[in-house]
Task: inverse folding
DNA sequence: ATTTCTGCAAATGCTTTGCATTGCA
DNA sequence: TGCAATGCAAAGCATTTGCAGAAAT
């Protein structure tokens, strides 16, 4: 068991207050923030921090496997300090991203499944992402007048 | 059984050569092109076509449910004329997107699963996307020297 | 004739890059 | 001290928007 600082140093990555702060924001939230959201949370305590630093930091944290990147399709990248594969659901109304903890990922990560995919497609599989789309309870109330159009996520 | 033209007219959407051409490109390919790729395919036959028209057309086709949009995380939106839910795999090496037809989507679309998600999260589910990530057979050969870094998709 | 669409150019929004300065090791 | 990271501003892309002219109904 090592601290994040030790992990970074072991990889010859310098420990800076900005990096620790970005990771702390991700660790404390379940809202799967994008870079802009992380930046706004940090601004009061780190008035000089820049968006570029936040971008570079999330890239680094992703590269070393401490966080995962989500592509829900809202035009920005969102980040999750829980790097374990798990399903997410995106609200088409307000953009909220929520974890789905009870969905079993077993079949999706199973070696046999990956081998079957390799047999069908020739790809060597290394990761999975599962996204559900819908309306959160709040947006469901507001948008109730039926949506007849086919779902566009 | 109606033609695409009839479907559009029934929705009071005008039938134009550009729209038919964009749909024809998607219908003929399995490469899940983005707007730029569709535009380049059309340019020789439709020298005056604009990217904006392609963007507007794919939005329209998605809205009426004739195509689906994919977010594999390559910084562009990709489109598939097969609007039925099915899994996709993205090559981290060359960006190729391939269908996975043999993967059973049953559990992902099952009413009970969606109700369980609603019970856990409060969301009313309306769609799913499943993306696998890996290396295609071609890139696997080239990139063979092991990749030790954690997977970043 | 009316309404909608096209194509162009400008604008927007997210992300990346180059570089001088700063700060960790 | 030496190398890497920060912060700033500019640049880069993908996508959207406004609008005048063109085309579909």
Result:
């Amino acid at each position: 068991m090592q601290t994040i600082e030790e992990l970074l140093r072991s990889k010859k990555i310098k420990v800076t207050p900005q990096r620790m702060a970005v990771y702390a924001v991700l660790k404390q939230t379940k809202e799967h923030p994008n870079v802009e959201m992380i930046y706004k949370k940090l601004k009061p305590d780190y008035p000089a921090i820049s968006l570029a630093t936040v971008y570079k930091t999330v890239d680094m944290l992703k590269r070393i496997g401490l966080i995962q990147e989500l592509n829900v399709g809202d035009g920005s990248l969102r980040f999750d300090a829980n790097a374990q594969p798990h399903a997410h659901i995106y609200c088409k109304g307000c953009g909220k991203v929520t974890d789905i903890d009870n969905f079993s990922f077993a079949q999706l990560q199973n070696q046999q499944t990956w081998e079957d995919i390799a047999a069908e497609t020739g790809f060597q599989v290394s990761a999975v992402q599962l996204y559900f789309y819908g309306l959160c309870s709040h947006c469901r109330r507001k948008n109730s007048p039926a949506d007849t159009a086919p779902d566009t996520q």
Notes: Strands of chain B lie at 68-70, 78-80, 87-91, 97-100, 124-135. Residues 12-14, 16, 18-19, 48-53, 56, 75 of chain B lie near DNA strand C (CB under 10 Å from a C1').
